[in-house]
Amino acid sequence: MKRGEGMPAPAGWPTGGKHKGSRARWHLRAASALALAALLAGCGGGGGGGADGSASSTAGGPASVPDVAAQPTSLADASRLADQASFGATEAMLQAIMADGPARWVAQQMRADVSRYTRGGSDAIHRYTGRDYCADNNLGASCWADNYSHEPLASDFFRNAVSRPDQLRQRVALALQQILVVSSLEVEGTYGLRHYQNLFLAHAFGNWRTVLEKVALSPLMGDYLNNLNNDRTDPNENFARELLQLFSLGTCELEADGNLRGGACQPTYDNAQVRAYAYALTGWTYPAGGASPWCQGTGGPDGNCRYYQGDMVPRPGAHDDQPRALLSGVTLPAGRGAPAALQGVLDSLMAHPNIGPFIGRQLIQHLVTSNPSPAYVRRVATAFDTGRHAPFGSGTKGDLQATVAAVLLDPEARGDSAGAQAGRLREPVQYFAGVLRALGGQTDGRVLTWSWGADLGQHVFRPSSVFNFYPPDYPVAGTALQGPQFGILNAGSGLARINYLNFLLYWGGAAPSAGMADALGTRVDLQAFEADAADPARLVDRMLRLAVGGRMSPAGRQAIIDAVAAWDSRAGAPAYLHERIKTAAYLVFASPHYQVTR
User: DSSP per residue over 458-490, as a string?
Assistant: First the structure.
């Protein structure tokens, strides 16, 4: 089981500097950070196909997205959907959701052009037969970052999250990459990481079986969890175990509503069954195309050379072809090949009753709320199992279009307010992107990746283990609630969240990095709010509508208005107007009402 160790950024890369503010601001940050858990645990709602993953033929193509009639909704409901299904609201997005209604907007998002990760080097690093690709080709100090690291993908991730229109696809892909984890801590090769992560963008509204098949055939995953060139006589169990534990079924048998079957944990599988899956999954090697001075493999006894573009290919002599009994009554006959065995593995997983509630509950947690009711989980699991959530879906089990629609359009997700225990902590990458989207910002991702991402515990594409940045069942201290993202919230990262606002609003953000292609830096543009700055109440109300759909108690709203109004014309125009905008943005986006989505 892989557990990667942290490693420092290479020399010359951005690092997580320590930022200082006034004593008063630090006290405010501490108070805001400590209030996050209280809000989640609190008492009710606020006041007011191709090289990057073509679809598998085993599950059929994705369902066509239905036409849905417009059914206008409220600002509060639109704001909730923007939090759940995008990286953060903009004023234009809120207007679109209000006019179209949730179902029509979701359908339009599913039809939007697909974002891609495109940056970084090619497969040349795994075709080179010299000794040192970077040094021999005089590619300079950025060669490792451009060709072996995740940094180019992180740049694409943040650029897309802030500016691309297919927000729902990107949010679902983020959920998938955090369930089906590969970490750049343990596998290197930018083009391979790019190929793997593009699979989730391509299949975000496809079928879970297809996603599992592409992951099982990924040479990057094969390297990460030791299934590539696995030993047919004594196979490594890493991938087989995580396929069962994390990627499909979980460790305990579940009711359709996600509760433990019979009220106690009855193991879904035992170690003998893990071994059976490990044997069944032997017989795969790298796709053809790789070469190096240390490997001359051509599919023979040692398999192909390392190469991350495309799917793994069968290595017949390395496959265990003995009969193997799997879950769900599936038995692999003697003499079958690795491709047939893989289909049997997928059959057994997709037929198991755990898969709908296990995957459905995690998608609810990633998109809507950390503590869904059993009834909510059951409804989403039903959509997964039937492949339909009218009018979405193909009717095939595992349909993600139907499942995602069920998650977002459920009665517990929609409406003007949430239940008493509903909500989720906005995880760091969503917080970074959400503030930038709301405040007219832009980013090239560099400072968000190596500085702020590291400070807040979510260095994108670089989780510390296959268990992701945080577990789905992480407990919120002092409550009976689960709060997965609280697993990376502590005193330091809580303060860093608010310090991020200082960085954007008071320190000018980050300038474009020298040597980075089409560098943007990371900055906000507050010009759009200047027209309202003369009226503190109007400015604050506009900021509250944008950030939280206007949901804040009258006392909280008035406190922010008073702080904004404290900047008066004696400071000189236009300086005092600019300070009002920064103060309003700081207090609204630092508030627990924004940091915990409800």
Answer: --TT--SBTT-SS-TTPBPTTSS-B-GGGGG--
pLDDT given for residue 500 in this prediction: 98
Sign of CA dihedral 407, 463, 475, 79: negative
- Dihedral of CA atoms 99, 103, 104, 105 in degrees, nearest 10, equals 70
Q: Do the Cβ atoms of 185 and 459 come closer than 8 Å?
A: no
Q: Is 379 helix (H, G, I), strand (E, B) or coil?
A: helix
Closest of 95, 93, 74, 73 to residue 85, by C-alpha? 93
Q: pLDDT tens digits for 468-482?
A: 999 999 999 999 999
Return the closest-CA partner of residue 239 out of 342, 163, 152, 94: 342
Contact 288, 315 (CB under 8 A): no
List Cβ<8 Å contacts ≥24 apart for 327-331: 327/249, 327/268, 327/269, 327/273, 327/352, 328/352
Closest CA relative to residue 281, chosen from 328, 348, 329? 348
The pLDDT, as a whole number, for residue 11 is 31
Q: What is the pLDDT of residue 13?
A: 32
Take residue 395 and report the two structure tokens written for it: 């009717």
d(CA 77, CA 390): 20
Tokens of 171: 């949010």
Closest of 27, 43, 65 to residue 419, by C-alpha: 43
Q: Supply the pTM of this predicted model.
A: 0.90
The set of residues, in sequence order, having a beta carbon less than 8 Å from that of 105 and lying 6+ positions away, is 81, 96, 97
Q: Where are the domains of the chain?
A: 50-419
Each residue's pLDDT tens digit, 18-40: 333 333 333 343 344 344 444 44
Separation CA 374–CA 259 (nearest Å): 7
